[in-house]
Amino acid sequence: MPQEFFARFKRRLLLELDVYRWGRKLKRQLSEQKNAASIGRRILICDLMVMFGGVKTQSLFAGALRLSGFEITVLLKKKEPILEGYYRKSVSNVKFLYFDDFLARINASEIELAVDTLFQKPALTISDLLNYERNGVRVGKNALSLTIRQLRVGKLDLLNKEHVSVIRSSLIYACTAASAALEIVSEVNPEKAIFNERGYTPAGEVFDACLIAGCGAIQWFGAPTEDRLLFKRYNLDNRSEHPMSLSDATWSQVKDMIWDDESDSSVLDRIHKNYKDNSAYNRQRLQDGKKFVSRDDLVSSLGLDPVKKTAIIFTHILYDATFFYGESLYDDYQDWLIETVRIAISNPSLNWIVKVHPVNVWRSKMDGAPLEQLESVALEAEFGRLPDHIKIMHADTDINTGALFQVLDYGLTVRGTIGMELPCFGVPVVTAGTGRYSGHGFTIDPKTRDEFQYVLSNLHKIPPLKNSQSNLARRYYYATIVKRPWKYNSFLLDFAAYTYGLVDLALDCFPVQNFGEEGSVSEDIKLLSRWIVDDDGCDFIS
User: Fold this and answer.
1) Where in the chain is the domain with CATH 3.40.50.2000?
2) Given 3-state DSSP classes, what are the helix, strand and coil percentages for the chain, each rounded to the nearest 5?
3) pLDDT band at 281 (very low <50, low <70, confident <90, very high)
4) CB atoms within 10 A of CB 522
5) What is the Cα 350 distance to its own chain's centre?
6) What are 112-148's pLDDT values in tens digits?
7) How far apart are the C-alpha atoms of 16 and 84, rounded to whole Å?
8) Distance separating alpha carbons of residues 417 and 413, to the nearest angstrom
9) Which fold has domain 250-483?
10) How many percent of the chain have pLDDT more than 90?
11) 3-state class of 511 per DSSP?
12) Range with the lowest mean pLDDT among 232-246, 406-420, 501-515?
């Protein structure tokens, strides 16, 4: 007990020191904000899924917006003096609201009755729950996403008492959160809102409440490459789209761009470099310790038939962001994987490889949980031993994903990044879901399960993509990975900082030495704040 008390005391002391040091770095900027006149327009910063480094980053955005005259309201889960300290050192006259205060006002008994009535519906399905809304808020998707994430399973089973219990609790919480979110947005009446997390309950409910009220909601997140962040503006029409997708307006601009052989080469070189140098999503270290091997070694080590073409099934992490984006042909990523492998079993004309996503390793470390090969477990439970023409590459394989480009002829995914990479090289990709890049002319997008089955049964007959299709893919990739990310240079984000040895500061944000030296916001943040305030476009374009 004394050791635990000392550890908590030390943590609090170090965090307070960090708040003090943060304030010292932002002293000039904060002083200038105090003289900024209010223009009577409000911005809501939703900070319900707390990462301290994310709080610091958002506070820099908020400071720039305050300098433009906006009133800033920060929504926290509950009163958190340390988090509030970071904001107070960054933003003058900042106001705070606490989600739990609004949650306590909601009549939960009425919500429990409504949820229990839903569960009494004959032949209730997961699809019914996914489509469940409360006052226009998509509580079903949010609740089931939270449930599958908490249980760390690939599939929710309505015959499993534990699953049903957690789903019920999550759905009640999501419905209560929806009512609270609608009250919050009504009280604040923000013109714009900023989110990092906008999917899981309760952030997802606040996100939808903002859109229903006509408030433009902007999500920011880490881009695939370092020193970059991505920003997307949402409304009710595009709220199901993946944040890395391109709006119709952006895609139209990209297709009209001047494009030459050098542009083509730059995209292909970038994709190769991302895998070879482990420079894409480097914070997750997806290719650390993995090696490039020759084509012959791949064929040998994987036991591939060198005469046949090869199709690779690029799985998704089964329990993370499962229901966030677009529409899917199958109920979840596990169903898609099982049915895809079922079709593969009946098509021995191809080598098939099930490539388990390497992010499973990173996610397990982040969760403090052992690495589970849920994909292998699900396939073994369904099929037992797989036939020889189907191989599994586990998440912790020592083979770099980029090496597989030497042997693959086809790719399969629901909506993974690989679906906009492989077509750049002329490789056909079959998708099983919308919301990202499907429908843009360079992927094969079956509209039904029957069509999906037909395509996969005849996949070996499909030729490489035409040059015109590959050109579209390269343009799409270029716009998403190169043009859309915002480059920051006035601060650094370190995804493995562990400042003072604290887990709270594993992700940390550090203003650079000359931050605010001129007594004003740095040029990179000025550019971003102008887009937030003045631009109606869905995609930030550099």
Assistant:
1) 250-483
2) 50, 15, 40
3) low
4) 22
5) 32
6) 999 999 999 999 999 999 999 999 999 999 999 999 9
7) 11
8) 9
9) Rossmann fold (3.40.50)
10) 68
11) strand
12) 501-515
Cα 190 to Cα 35, 170, 175, 199: the distances in Å are 22, 27, 22, 20
Helices (H) then strands (E): counts for the chain:
20, 14
Residue-wise over 194-232: b if at least 16 C-beta within 10 A, else e?
Answer: bbbbbbbbbbbbbbbbbbbbebbbbbbebbbbeebbbbb
Give CA–CA dist 152/323, Å, rounded. Answer: 14
CA distance 92 to 47: 18
Looking at the domain covering 2-103+180-243+489-534, what would its CATH class be?
Answer: alpha beta
Predicted confidence (pLDDT) at residue 292 exceeds the cutoff of 90: no
Give the Cα separation of 534 and 186 in Å (integer): 23
What is the reported pLDDT for 286? 53
| Residue of 140, 18, 126 lying closest to 505 (CA atoms) | 18
Express each pLDDT in 17-46 by its tens digit.
Answer: 999 999 988 888 777 777 777 777 899 999
Q: For residue 220, which of 90, 46, 367, 75 has the smallest C-alpha distance?
A: 46
Q: Which residue, 53, 107, 52, 108, is CA-closest to 82?
A: 52
Count the alpha carbons within 13 Å of 449 in the hemisphere toward its beta carbon: 12
